[in-house]
């Protein structure tokens, strides 16, 4: 009988949103198909969901099996744990000094061209010890978790020397081991051409291709490789060279594409078969079509366009109408998006991208899971997947983005363990 035991039964869920459905990322109308179960329950064993649905169904399924712990959800809203598929989690310092410059009208690329922006965070990150980076990133990860995030992606890219990139990536690996939030690691040595390579970008590209990518691979420190394809950063040709080398080594591919200027990054994402392309604020119709044909997931970052005070946001409505799967993310970083709050991103997804609450939830759960290659284990509540879920102080989904700027989390379960209460 003991082997039969249910570790956890969460019952009396007022509104249960499971996000069950297709194995593929959700596109078009599928992004709105968000069924809610009234008076639901979830049964968990060894961190994995064994039954989920209405209380009646779940109780019938578990039958006489003994239950170790029962948790009353008090009639609240339950969703899958939120997934943040694009963050620059590990970095030194902060850049509140840029706020005054921004208010005086300086643009992101102007601040960068003057040696600020990413380059100032590169200086702080190089100076920081591994321990300092760990302590700072852990604080952010605690905040993410308290706002309902159970898995996040984390990029390097503020070291820009082999040693400093490895330092960032080791911090991600250690946090992944120590912290309840699972981390998916991305190598982003192609985040910027460092000052010591100014005017010699091709040499830096060679360093990335010949030394950094192979060493990161050898040490197994990242699953994905990302490139910042933008004017004054990496050209489309350079981005392609880097992504080709990464692909040959077996990395999954991501790209920061068409954030500020329509460079053709979205087309490149399609051509290279990237798993996702991020930002896309200035992406052209042709770029989006290339992504659609190749099945690239569009990761939109509405907190970034909000914080950069851009006049335009990513065209999420067009993307959804074209049949592109859309995911949403914080882009948490010290410059363009200093926030860990996926709940704020959900509000901005509605108000600035015109997405419905149902589309937004799809974008921060199952589509976000696909964007980091983890949809087989997370992103929806179904038998066989991890019991990563959030209980919100809300009665329905729309309340989350509607009542904005506060934290609605009541409690968080990661692999069946209560990690926020
Ligand atoms: O995704 N666009 C490039 N990288 C980050 C910003 C990094 C920074 O400003 O420090 C982004 O917006
Ligand atoms: Fe980013």
From TrEMBL:
InterPro entries membership: Amidohydro-rel (IPR006680), HutI (IPR005920), Metal-dep_hydrolase_composite (IPR011059), Metal_Hydrolase (IPR032466)
Entry binding sites for N-formimidoyl-L-glutamate = 158, 333, 335
State what this protein does.
Catalyzes the hydrolytic cleavage of the carbon-nitrogen bond in imidazolone-5-propanoate to yield N-formimidoyl-L-glutamate. It is the third step in the universal histidine degradation pathway.
UniProt gene name: hutI
Q: In which pathway does it act?
A: Amino-acid degradation; L-histidine degradation into L-glutamate; N-formimidoyl-L-glutamate from L-histidine: step 3/3
- Tell me yes or no: is Iron among this UniProt entry's keywords: yes
The protein's UniProt keywords, in alphabetical order, are: Cytoplasm, Histidine metabolism, Hydrolase, Iron, Metal-binding, Zinc
Q: Which residues bind Zn(2+)?
A: 86, 88, 256, 331
* Biological classification of the source: Bacteria, Bacillati, Bacillota, Bacilli, Bacillales
Q: What is this protein called?
A: Imidazolonepropionase
Q: Which cofactor does it need?
A: Zn(2+); Fe(3+)
**Where's it found, cell-wise?**
Cytoplasm
EC class: hydrolase
Query: Which PANTHER family does its entry note?
Result: IMIDAZOLONEPROPIONASE, IMIDAZOLONEPROPIONASE-RELATED
Q: Which Gene3D superfamilies match?
A: Metal-dependent hydrolases (3.20.20.140), Urease, subunit C, domain 1 (2.30.40.10)
For this protein, the Enzyme Commission number is: 3.5.2.7
The molecular function GO annotations come to: imidazolonepropionase activity
Name the chemical reaction catalysed here: 4-imidazolone-5-propanoate + H2O = N-formimidoyl-L-glutamate
